[in-house]
């Protein structure tokens, strides 16, 4: 397993200064930029779409890790690919044809990820593990930043780590929701190798970002 990658979620950034915020987390050591797209239908909140993502794309060369909370999602995949996504991650719960969605993302030449919600079993990955590049485990119910980590997801992270290792494929195992310096080491111990964090990165303002990111790596 490689060292943990930290993916700050720009959902917690100051939207009035979004470009500066992306530059600041890049300089503070972010590995990926996590882009949370919410449609007000699949989740009870609305964030932003591909035009906003495209506007911040030139600000950094770090990979854009795009988490689509959209249903049905397929009609938007091309737009996010064109707007500069590096990895596009879709929920198994967001439509009847997750296998087709993953095929579509791969056909666009992008890394493909699959997300499972807290109430969704790891078993949903059985027939996807041979084609995805990333599995994202939600450790909160999606829709909002600043929620509490759901402990029961640690068991699922460990189960998926076993599935990934058994597959022999290079698949990132990412955790999203309530990740902070207390829960991060528990996720890593369970087998995660990428962590999304909004609140725990952006609190304290730009002068705190580097220390906040280091603390999530366990270098606090
Ligand atoms: C939730 C989003 C998360 C969220 C993380 O739907 O997918 O990325 O913004 O925020 P924190 O780290 O504050 O829980
Ligand atoms: Zn997310």
Automatic annotation (TrEMBL):
Chemical reaction(s) catalysed: D-ribulose 5-phosphate = D-xylulose 5-phosphate
Annotated binding of a divalent metal cation, by residue: 34, 36, 67, 176
Cofactor note: Binds 1 divalent metal cation per subunit.
Pfam family for this entry, one: Ribul_P_3_epim
Keyword annotations of the record: Carbohydrate metabolism, Isomerase, Metal-binding
Pathway(s) of this molecule: Carbohydrate degradation
Domain of life: Bacteria
Binding site for substrate: 9, 67, 143-146, 176-178
A GO molecular function held by the record: D-ribulose-phosphate 3-epimerase activity
InterPro entries: Aldolase_TIM, Ribul_P_3_epim, Ribul_P_3_epim-like, RibuloseP-bd_barrel
Cofactor(s) it depends on: Co(2+); Mn(2+); Fe(2+); a divalent metal cation
EC number(s) stated in the UniProt entry for this protein: 5.1.3.1
Isomerase in keyword set: yes
Catalytic center residues: 36, 176
Protein family membership: Belongs to the ribulose-phosphate 3-epimerase family.
Purpose of the protein: Catalyzes the reversible epimerization of D-ribulose 5-phosphate to D-xylulose 5-phosphate.
HAMAP family membership: RPE (MF_02227)
Full protein name: Ribulose-phosphate 3-epimerase
Organism (species): Sphingomonas mollis
């Amino acid at each position: 397993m490689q060292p943990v990658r930290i993916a700050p979620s720009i959902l917690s950034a100051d939207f009035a200064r979004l470009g500066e915020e992306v530059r600041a987390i890049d300089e503070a050591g972010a590995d990926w930029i996590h882009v949370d797209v919410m449609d007000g239908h699949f989740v009870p909140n609305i964030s932003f779409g591909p035009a906003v993502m495209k506007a911040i794309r030139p600000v950094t060369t770090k990979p854009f890790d795009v988490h689509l909370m959209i249903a049905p999602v397929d009609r938007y995949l091309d737009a996010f690919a064109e707007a500069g996504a590096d990895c596009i991650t879709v929920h198994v719960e967001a439509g009847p044809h997750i296998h087709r969605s993953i095929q579509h993302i791969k056909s666009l030449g992008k890394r493909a990820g699959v997300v499972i919600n807290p109430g969704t079993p790891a078993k949903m990955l059985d027939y996807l593990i041979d084609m995805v590049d990333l599995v994202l485990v939600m450790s909160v119910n999606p829709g909002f930043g600043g929620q509490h980590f759901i402990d029961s997801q640690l068991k699922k992270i460990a189960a998926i780590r076993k599935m990934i290792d058994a597959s022999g494929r290079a698949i990132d195992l990412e955790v999203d929701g309530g990740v902070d310096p207390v829960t991060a080491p528990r996720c890593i111990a369970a087998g995660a190798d990428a962590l999304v964090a909004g609140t725990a990165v952006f609190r304290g303002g730009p002068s705190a970002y580097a220390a906040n990111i280091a603390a999530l790596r366990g270098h606090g």
